[in-house]
Amino acid sequence: MPMSADDIATLIRQAIPDAQVEITDLAGDGDHYAARVVAPSFAGMSRVAQTRAVYAALGGRMGGELHALQLTTAVS
After folding, report:
1. pLDDT digits (tens, 9 = 90+) for 24-57
2. Looking at CB atoms within 10 Å, which of 8, 9, 54, 59 has the fewest?
3. CA 74 → CA 20, 36, 51, 53, 63, distances in Å?
4. What region does 38 belong to: left with phi over 0, alpha with psi -120 to 50, or beta?
5. Residue 63's pLDDT band (boundaries 50, 70, 90)?
């Protein structure tokens, strides 16, 4: 069963409370999303570390409930 954009945003915000999260459904199918995650707590982290933090927030759902996620991260 696909994940909703709200579910994705909630998981990210629970793990990264200071994050501003924008989710876009790229294909209208609930399986292909783009996410922009901006958080002050990303300061000092490499882009790879930021990406890992977001994927960790999703708790292993990538490739299962969540088929594809185009991810952009930034420090606010």
Report:
1. 999 888 889 999 999 999 999 999 999 999 999 9
2. 59
3. 10, 8, 10, 12, 24
4. beta
5. confident
